[in-house]
Amino acid sequence: MTDASLHALDRAEIGPADEAGLGDYWQLLKPRLMSLSVFTALVGLIVAPGDLHPFLGATSILWIALGAGASGALNMWFDADIDRVMRRTRNRPIPAGRVAPSDALALGLFLSALSVVMLGLTANWVAAGWLAFTIFFYAVIYSMWLKRTTSWNTVIGGLAGAFPPMIGWAAATGGTPLEAWLLVGLIFMWTPPHFWALALFVKMDYHEARIPMLTVTHGRDATRRQAFLYALGLAAVSLATAVSSLGGPLTLAVALVLNGVFLYHAFAVWRRDDAASEADRHAAERAMFKWSLVYLFAHFSVFVAEAALGSYGGW
Question: Tell me, which fold does domain 1-175 have in CATH?
Answer without folding.
Answer: Tetracycline Repressor; domain 2 (1.10.357)
